[in-house]
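I have been asked to look over a protein record a colleague put together. The record follows directly below this note.
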Amino acid sequence: MSTVLNAQAPVTFEIKSASLPLVALLLKSADLSRLEDELRQRFGDVPDFFDHDPLLIDLGPLQTSDEADAPLDFARLTALLGQHRLRPLAVRGGNETQMAAAVLAGLVPADDAVVQRASGPAPATAPAASAAPAAPAPVAPPPTSNALVIDKPLRSGQQVYARGRDLVVMAMVNPGAEVIADGHIHVYAPLRGKAIAGARGNAEARIFALSMDPELISIAGIYRTSENPLPPEVQGKPAQVRLNSGPDGDKLVIDAISA
């Protein structure tokens, strides 16, 4: 037999559970000067890449390095991230001293936060790519399905960013041009510039091109430059780039596309 109790709800407020999409910075080094240089190199020419996004600082990767016990200047770190229009709110994964310092800097401990990472087997068909230091990876929904379509060739110095969606380019991406998308990148022409897919950490993003000859390719912060030539079976041919994770870390996999 059920018993119904009289209750009274507050008139002026309600308390509900909520979730917030966060960008996560996986910090791999306590050297903030080097972090500043690398953030400038990666995002300096895209000043509106972030839009005051809330940020989780993940110190987990730091704990597996030689700098596990290194002190961190969180005031300097949060100011540095603010220069790139990021708003640090929370921290996870640090040791007791680091977490205490983070709290003093106004960050909220969030050790139960989950950071999205790449998953799946790693049958690589190309040499391993390099991991971009301190690349941000988000805990956020996948990009929407409405793609940004570019019909004209992109010349050197031009840049296109499909925020929150896929990017479709119907003409050549020339050397010195850059295409960026939070989702997939499709180039129905030669890709000879830079292509950065999954820019906010979507590890499922891919890069497709009818002629794969890029200066740089990157998915979710894992990148490869033209200093490491592509294998002959994909160089200048229809191909796709995807991200796989294995025992040796995240790697880019490049597959030929058969007609």
User: Anything to note?
Assistant: Residues 118-141 have pLDDT under 50 and may be disordered. The chain has two domains: 22-109, 130-256. Helices lie at 32-43, 60-63, 74-83, 96-104.
